[in-house]
What does this fold into?
Amino acid sequence: MNQWSDFLWYALAGGIGVVLLAGPLGCFVVWQRLAYFGETLAHGAFLGVALAFLLDLSPTLGVAAVGVALAFLLARRSANEPLTEDTLLGFLAHTSLALGLVALAFLERVRVDLFAYLFGDILALRPEELLLLALIDLIGLVLVVRFWSGWVNLTLHEELAAVEGHPVARLRLVFLLTLALFVATAMKLVGILLTVALLVIPAAAARPLSRTPTQMAIGAVLIGVVAVWLGLSASLAWDTPAGPSIVVAAALLFLLVRWALTVIRHARAELATSRPTL
It folds into this structure.
């Protein structure tokens, strides 16, 4: 740890900042099987970047606008819609990606580093960007606390939640908008790959270890923090790219949890069969 420079501490703080909000939001992404929505937002980011350059706006603003539009389209999907949700997401993802890449081709005087948007550079975070991330965390966590109960009820049983008087449509829209704005902001700071991975993998790893939604959210945050620290440490030790190293660390933690639970189940089964019968 003595070898860590300021930029590594900034990267660690940025990674933790992403995880603090990605943890609880990722739980709902896993519960509601919305992992592909994160990928759709990632694909749509390229359209947002292209529109931002065409209109001479901030790329973050363009990505956020596209993310909000995609959230509205998904939230307004009718129950009688013949297209399934995953089919609609697939259509939106690939169409927005294609439109974005075609639009970028017409920007002859502007060169866009798509690699930077895809993978980001968490090691290049500056203090002012950390302040922006802290503000997003504050707003996002306030919304999570405010709507946590309603989102949980919506996840458990949408029809029952509606019967009990919960504003199902509004709850779903607020969640999708919160998710879209988080992805749009975090993507600019740490890249699409890291943002979406930290939404899904820590929550998926924490799920079998948790008995309540709150435990799963806390577990997802803790696993995400460990993944960020391990990934940055591996990047420092072996000179590997920081963002992908964090994703690999998160994936290894996921596999470790699955392996440990399998070993425990087998041990319990063997113990049960080895007990003498009376």
Notes: The mean pLDDT is 86. The two ends are 57 Å apart (CA to CA).
